[in-house]
Design brief:
Strand content: 35-45%
Helix content: 10-25%
Radius of gyration: 15 Å
Oligomer: single chain
Distance between the termini: 33 Å
Mean pLDDT: 93
Structural class: alpha+beta
């Protein structure tokens, strides 16, 4: 499974970055041709289910996910959320860690393992590069005011 990892610093406090990065509908709004459908009642917690639906017209695929770890940041402690992908096309997991910085702002570490069913492992570097591009672009958009 291709591993994707990147680090981003923001002026936003960890609590605000957390609220934005765990607003799953914001994720869908940042990925072209994608919308997020929340299947469980708020608030988000372990067990929350949501689906990122990507496509145009009748050509779509779903990326259903489940929150399996939910630990919001508190004070100077890191926040961590983990989602597992349960799709027929996209498999893997993603973790988003949010660390408060002593001088203010926060650091986000996004780690993801992503696999497209039926795609040969030979193409893992291409999947990783595409994932890094899409997810880092989404992260920047989600954190914008």
């Amino acid at each position: 499974m291709p591993a994707i990892r990147f680090v981003h610093r923001t002026h936003l406090p960890a609590s605000e970055a957390w609220l934005r990065l765990t607003d799953w509908e914001r994720h869908g709004a940042q990925v072209p041709f994608t919308r997020t459908i929340i299947a469980t009642e708020p608030p988000t917690r372990v067990g929350t289910l949501f689906t990122a639906r990507t496509g145009v017209a009748r050509i779509t695929f779903d990326d259903p996910m489940e929150v399996v770890l939910w630990r919001p940041p508190e004070g100077l402690s890191e926040g961590l959320v983990k989602v597992v992908k349960h799709g027929r096309v996209i498999l893997g997991w993603a973790e988003i860690a949010i660390r408060p910085l002593p001088a203010g702002g926060s650091e986000i570490v996004w780690t993801e393992e992503l696999r497209l069913r039926g795609l040969p492992r030979l193409l893992d570097p291409v999947v990783a590069a595409a994932g890094r591009f899409v997810f880092s672009r989404a992260l920047h958009g989600i954190l914008r005011p």
